[in-house]
């Protein structure tokens, strides 16, 4: 059984801390992939350093938010999530990270924070083409058997779950809803980010090609870099440690550029 992190802040909301870091000087906010939940990132907490707080987002419709409907579009989801980013509560540099569908959600949240004058310290996107190159699709219109076969192909869901009819009936509507969000997404016009962007992907990932990764340069006036790992769409399973190290380095660099006063003794 997965452990659900507790809601962050006085209002609860969508943000969940993975491990308390009372003296954190920067934070990393993690956005799950389509069909994923906050618990996917729970193992990342083991590698979180003392000075960087790792938090994650819980989308509607899963785990303790199971009864909530999936939003109509990614823009609507991002608008809700942007209100829960804890930068207003504790204004330390925040790096956003999203994998697959989470890359789009993180990008849209970054756009809203930028428009509000609260640009994130960095945006790290994983396993997804640039927003303007998002591939349309019809998987969300597939019948149940076709949808399950797609999940087997991408290895997005453990096979034990897919072989359990009861569990499939419980989570398949959420999976279908997330595919709809991704496959119908179209970026709306707006200003470019000022945030540095880093693009990660696996060298055998059929969901993104090098030229689609290169397209992320068009979304920001900041620096845009790429890093390629060995593996497929879920290369994160094998390369969790270096990804966490990369995110930690990004957060610490942002903290050095915007130092936060060290707490004094009473």
UniProtKB/TrEMBL annotation:
A family per Pfam: Thioesterase
Keyword Glycosyltransferase on entry: no
Domain of life (superkingdom): Bacteria
Domain Thioesterase TesA-like: 32-251
Keyword Membrane carried by entry: no
Annotated keywords: Hydrolase
Family label: Belongs to the thioesterase family.
Database matches in PANTHER family: S-ACYL FATTY ACID SYNTHASE THIOESTERASE, MEDIUM CHAIN, THIOESTERASE
Full protein name: Pyochelin biosynthetic protein
Protein source organism: Streptomyces daqingensis
Gene: pchC
């Amino acid at each position: 059984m997965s452990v659900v992190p507790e809601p962050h802040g006085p209002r609860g909301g969508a943000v969940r801390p993975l491990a308390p870091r009372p003296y954190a000087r920067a934070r990393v906010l993690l956005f799950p992939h389509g069909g994923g939940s906050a618990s996917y990132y729970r193992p990342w907490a083991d590698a979180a350093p003392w000075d960087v707080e790792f938090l994650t987002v819980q989308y509607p419709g899963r785990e303790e938010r199971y009864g909530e409907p999936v939003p109509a579009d990614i823009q609507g989801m991002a608008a809700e999530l942007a209100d829960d980013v804890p930068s207003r509560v504790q204004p330390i540099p925040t790096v956003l990270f999203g994998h697959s569908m989470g890359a789009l959600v993180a990008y849209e949240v970054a756009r809203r924070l930028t428009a509000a004058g609260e640009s994130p310290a960095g945006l790290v996107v994983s396993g997804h083409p640039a927003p303007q190159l998002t591939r349309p699709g019809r998987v969300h219109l597939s019948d149940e058997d076709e949808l399950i076969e797609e999940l087997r192909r991408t290895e997005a869901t453990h096979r034990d779950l897919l072989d359990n009819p009861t569990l499939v009936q419980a989570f398949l509507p959420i999976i279908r809803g997330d595919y709809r969000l991704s496959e119908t997404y179209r970026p709306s016009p707006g200003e470019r980010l000022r945030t540095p962007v880093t693009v990660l992907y696996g060298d055998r990932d059929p969901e993104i090609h090098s030229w689609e990764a290169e397209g992320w340069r068009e979304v920001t006036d900041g620096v845009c870099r790429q890093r390629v790992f060995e593996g497929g769409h879920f290369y994160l399973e094998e390369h969790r440690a270096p990804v966490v190290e990369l995110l930690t380095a990004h957060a610490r660099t942002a903290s050095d550029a915007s130092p936060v006063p060290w707490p004094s003794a009473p």
